[in-house]
Amino acid sequence: MCIAVPGRVTGIDDLNMATVDFGGTEKVASADLVPDICVGDYVLVHAGFIINVLDEEDALETLELFRQYMETLQDDEVP
Amino acid sequence: MMKYLDEFRDPGVATALVGRIRDAASRLDRPVKLMEICGSHTVAIFRTGIKSLLPENITLVSGPGCPVCVTAMDDMDRMIALADPAVGGKSIIATFGDMLRVPGTWTSLESRRAEGADVRVTTTPLDAVQWAREEPGRPVVFLGVGFETTSPTIAASVLRARQSGLDNFTVYPAFKLLPPALTALLEAPDVALDGFLCPGHVSVMLGAAAYRPFASRYGKPCVIAGFEPLDILHGISMLCDMLADNLHEVRNSYGRAVTQQGNTKAMETLMEVFEPCDTPWRGLGIIPGSGLSFRGEFADFDAVRRFGLSSVPVGTEPAGCACGQVLRGNMDPPQCPLFASACTPESPVGSCMVSSEGSCAAWYRYST
Ligand code: SF4
Fold first, then answer.
1. Cα separation values, B314 from B72, B302, B311, B324, Å
2. Residue range B206-220, pLDDT digits in tens
3. Nearest CA owner, ligand 1 atom 7
4. Does residue B349 have its Cβ closer than 6 Å to ligand 1?
5. Minimal CA–CA distance to B23: which of A9, A76, A47, A24?
6. Domain identity same for B64 and B172
7. B279 and B338 fall within a common domain
8. B6-31 per-position pLDDT tens digit
C-alpha cells in the first residue's frame, strides 16, 4: 500500500495542485506535503500527494556503482 | 523508457548483484534471517523470484509492514460498523480498495456494500474530501489505515477539509507508526532477526536517521531500499556485506528518494493533526506509542468521537489463523494449517490472505 510512482511535474495551479506526467498519462496531485516544487521536477506520488522530489545526481551515482559491479563481474569471468 | 524505473530493472546488473550477495554469504559464519518490513517489498520479492536467487544461508522473512494486515480486529469491526445505518447513519464510507474484503468478526465492508451501504473505493483521501463537498448533508468517513507514507496525506486532507469549512468530513484513525513496531519486535523474546530491509517510501517521510537506534542499540544492520528489482538486490547485498563484516549501521540504497532527515514538512503536517497513542496490532498486541489519535483541536474530524462507537461489541480473531506468527516473521504462511485449504484469496480467513500485499496472499499467488 506504500507504493509511490515516479513522474514529472508539468504544471502547478493556484490551489497547489500539480499536474504530473507518468510516461504519457497525466494526473493531478497535491503539492501540500512538499515545500517547493518546480515544473520539470521528477517526483514520487502516493495517494494523490507528491511526497518528495527525486535526486537525479544520486540516481546517477547508484547507476554508476551498478555499472562498476557489472564490469567487475565481467573481469572475473575472463579466464 | 520510464525514467527512474527501467534503469533499475537491468538483468545484467541483477546478475552482478546476485554474485555480490553470494560472495558476502560465503563469508558468513552462520545462517542469517533478514526481514523485509514492507508489504510492497514482499510482493516485489515474490514477483521477481528474488527468494530463489539467494544462497541457502540467507533467509528473507516478511514483517508487519502491510497496513491492512496489521489492522486489529476491533478496528476492523468498528470500521465495518460505520457502514451500518444504525451506527453510521447515511454515511459515505471511503476506503482504499484493500480494505473491502477483509473479514471482520461478523461481516465485511464488501458484504455491507452488497446490502446497500455507500462504500466507495478510492486511491486518494482527496476524493473523500470532494465527496464531502458535493454532499454537505451527509457524513463522509475515510478509513484511515497506513504507515508514515500514507498518514500524512490524510492529515493534509483533513487540513484541506478544515480550510474549506467542511463539517461532514471525518477519518477513522487506525494508522500505525513503524519504528515502535520494530522496537516491539526486537524486544519480543521469540523473534530472532539479523537485519532489516527497510521500507523505501515510509523512509521518504521518516528519513534514514529514524533507524539509527535499531543499528546502535539493538545491533541490527538496516538498509533502506527502493522497490525495483535492482534496488532490492542491492539492499540485500549491502545487508549481507555488513553482516559478513560484523557491522551494524544504517545504510541507504535508495538515496534518490530518501534523505537523512526525511520529509519534515509531511511529518510536521502529520503531527499537527494527530498525536501518538498506544494502539493494538493484529498478532502483535498493544504497542506503546505506535498509533495516532486526533489532537484536541481536530476532534470534530474524528469518526470515533462523532459516531460513539463504544456500542460495537468486542470481536474475536478467526480461529486457527496464524497471522500473528506470520507478521512477526516466525512462520511462513504454508506452515499455517489453514493455508490454501480453508484460507484462500477467494475466501480469506485472515487479513494476510486478503490484502494483495499480505504475506499469505503473496505466497499463495506465487508459490502454489
Ligand atoms: S493462511 Fe490464512 S488463516 Fe493462515 S495465517 Fe494466513 S491469513 Fe491467517
1. 11, 20, 9, 19
2. 999 999 999 999 999
3. B350
4. yes
5. A76
6. yes
7. no
8. 888 888 888 889 999 999 999 998 99
